[in-house]
Amino acid sequence: MSEKHNLKVEKTATYYTLGNVKTAKTIWFVLHGYGMLAKYFIKKFEPILNEETCIIAPDGLSKFYTQGFYGRVGATWMTKEDREEEIEDYINYLNKLYEVNIAENNNENVKINLLGFSQGGATVSRWAASKKITFNNLILWASVFPDDMTFDFLNNNNTFVLLGDKDEFATDKNVQTQKEVLAKSGVDFTLIKFEGAHDIPKKIILEQTQLNSWN
Question: Which of 9, 70, 71, 124 would staple 116 via disulfide (CB 3.0–4.6 Å)?
Answer without folding.
Answer: 124
